Amino acid sequence: MRVPLSWLREYVDLPATETGRDVQAKLVAVGLEVETVEHIGAGLKGPLVVGQVLTIEELEGFKKPIRFCTVDVGNANGTGEPQEIVCGARNFAVGDKVVVVLPGAVLPGDFAIAARKTYGRTSHGMICSTDELGMGDDGTHGIIVLSPEHEVGTDAIELLQLVDEVLDIAVTPDRGYCLSMRGVARETAIAYGLPLRDPALLDVPAPNAFGYPVKVADPIGCDRFTARTVVGLDPEARSPIWLQRRLQKAGMRPISLTVDITNYVMLELGQPLHAYDRTRIDGPIGVRRAQQGEKLTTLDGTARVLDAEDLVITDNRGPIGLAGVMGGANTEIADVQEDAHSTTEVVIEAAHFDAISIARTARRHKLSSEASKRFERGADPEAAAAAAQRTVDLLVLLAGGTAEAGVTEVTAPSGPRTIAMPADHPDRVAGVVHGRETVVRRLQEVGCDVYGQDELLVTAPSWRPDLSEPNDLAEEVIRLEGYENLPSTLPTPPSGRGLTDRQRLHRRVGRALAGAGYVEALSYPFIGDAVLDQLGFDADDARRRTVKLVNPLSDEEPALRTTLLPGLLGALRRNDGRGSHDLALFETGLVFRPTGDETQAVRLPVDHRPGDEQIAGLNAALPHQPRRAAVVLAGAREQAGWWGKGRPVDWADSIEAARAIAREAGVELIVRSDQHAPWHPGRCAALFVTANDAEVLVGHAGELHPRVIKELHLPERTCAMEIDLDLLEQAVDGALRAPRISTFPVATQDVALIVAESVPAAEVEQALRAGAGELLESLRLFDVFTGEQIGEGKKSLAYALRFRAADRTLTVDEATAARDAAVALAAERTGAVLRGA
């Protein structure tokens, strides 16, 4: 919301010495976010005056049209003689009143004006356009042509209000009343302790049966509709300078007098309005929900297909406007300069629409307007009649119209919003004693009616829909008393509470992956069906069952993620596209899996801790949210250099990342070959752990399928891993034990076993571990060999076995016996034969 300081002074008698910066500081202190203070006309210096064009001579022989003009500027030039000026614009004629800047003046941008020779003539000044004066967009970008009543020689700086300060306020959703001069003026008056001249306090005639007929079929979507009619408008009337300048400073472009007035009243009172050409309306005005598939061409020229939830304004022909968002083109106010049919009779609509309905309609049609911004934040329903009256008054004053006696007002019954609150509730919330008198005074300042002594009964004003609970009222008292006056106290944490086991595992996993060279990349938890298709998930894949969001940030990603891979792969693709080709990224976070048993969540009070049953009810309303860890890799895993050749990423690196995570959880990972999207069928590993004497699938790792790599535009040989941290935690057998350190020496035994090529190395390793017994400290596969010496369809697996006892030095016989037992069990389970035996 852009707030000109000169306009603000109409409603609050600010001290003359107060600058925009001073007002900014006061408003920030009461909780408004004033982002900037713009100094309009900074550096502007006169003389800048009203002149009248006396003669125009067309200069020939130049590439563009050039005119040599004489302009009467009165005594502003000190001589009273006509001023000679060269000008290239053509939107003015002899006799027009224009704005002239004379030599010695300085325009915005430090543009000094002096007499200069150009196009064979000497130009003593310049005839000005809106752009040159920094006035903003008026839609013409030509010379400013003033109305005839302005005196020649009048100071144009004051006439055009060229010097001002404008506060740019970022209005939060709960402070929608500040999207108006009325709302900002109220906050300013409170901040300065000054009275407010409320522009909505107007004498409004009572409703009667003679107004334009209105039928509201949906009183929930539209609980108030006021209609007024003005006839006999002068089609030649134009918006006066003061009106145009206020709109321009507020960031709006002047269009036509009727439209400018409705925009002006909206900025002034915060009530959006719409003006219909009465001759283009067929029958009564109606308000209803659209029929699915109905069509409407809005004022922006776009033909829109309506949804059954859209609220529309209608006449006998059908929809003529998208309620609270934008009017229809078929009842548009016509401009005499653009349309042979000029509007002389208008029907003014001032209505109040349901905030949620308007917000959803605006998002559904991707059509955010000044009106929808105000309705979706909660406009003042009581301001509709005053806004209609203010519009009628301005049309009568500026357009020469006549207000018809009929006043239509359709209202749905509603009562005041009352809130019961202990008088000391703000004190208990803030930890500061304000006292009842201060609490009552501050609530009355924001517009509340307050009754009672120890227990207050507060009626919230109609323009504050955000005030619904005692804590809302407490916030008003605290912010107006000054957040800076609150004491700074640190909460005392309860003893005996620390991180949970789940949180500790999460942190250990992050540290382990970072230590292994991975970089954490956090992504948004939203996905769409398109990426699930690109990942190659089958139609019945559980990862396609998603939790849909009611109000998603993006229509392309309307659901919560069921896997961490889309976000990570997107980050990898972006970094690879920007020149970083050797990548190892990881993320730990939640995924969301609907169970089908979710219940409807209930809204809990905030004045006390919910009970166990209430918390259980909230949890039952949530989908299953397992915590996962995932990695993605591409490019080189080991860089080449003087130390030797580098090594590209392969599927084994993703499995090793899973093993590192399992080690942090204190569990042993079992790796088996598998086929699972989006991994390559021949390079995909299923990851298992043992829990309660059963193997539990916890994740997958390997190289991505070539088709997935192509669909997602990923580097070749991209690898990935995803693992369930909650299942790892459940598989932990007791508390995590620290590694045991023995002071006795290690005994190393190497074995090479020949097995069939189809036998996974993991099965051989599992058998060796089981057969070696408690003396085995570690086991490592250090060589895989195939060739004629081994035989067709065979492979040789060489393992290094390390044996150690905690209480003695092992003998050769003990180490050999343990090795032989390991080999024997491997032979029994996998058919392994000791190489060279």
UniProtKB/TrEMBL annotation:
Class in the EC hierarchy, top level: ligase
A matching Pfam family: tRNA_synthFbeta
Main location: cytoplasm
Compartmental location: Cytoplasm
Cofactor note: Binds 2 magnesium ions per tetramer.
Keyword flag Transit peptide: no
A cellular-component GO term for this protein: phenylalanine-tRNA ligase complex
Domain B5: 414-488
Annotated binding of Mg(2+), by residue: 466, 472, 475-476
Keyword field: Aminoacyl-tRNA synthetase, ATP-binding, Cytoplasm, Ligase, Magnesium, Metal-binding, Nucleotide-binding, Protein biosynthesis, RNA-binding, tRNA-binding
Residue span, FDX-ACB domain: 742-835
Record's keyword annotation contains NAD: no
Residue ranges annotated for the TRNA-binding domain, each copy included: 42-157
Family that this chain belongs to: Belongs to the phenylalanyl-tRNA synthetase beta subunit family. Type 1 subfamily.
Assembly and oligomerization: Tetramer of two alpha and two beta subunits.
PANTHER family assigned to the protein according to its UniProt record, in alphabetical order: PHENYLALANINE--TRNA LIGASE BETA SUBUNIT, PHENYLALANYL-TRNA SYNTHETASE BETA CHAIN AND LEUCINE-RICH REPEAT-CONTAINING PROTEIN 47
Protein name (Swiss-Prot/TrEMBL): Phenylalanine--tRNA ligase beta subunit
Native source organism of the sequence: Streptomyces atratus
Name of the gene: pheT
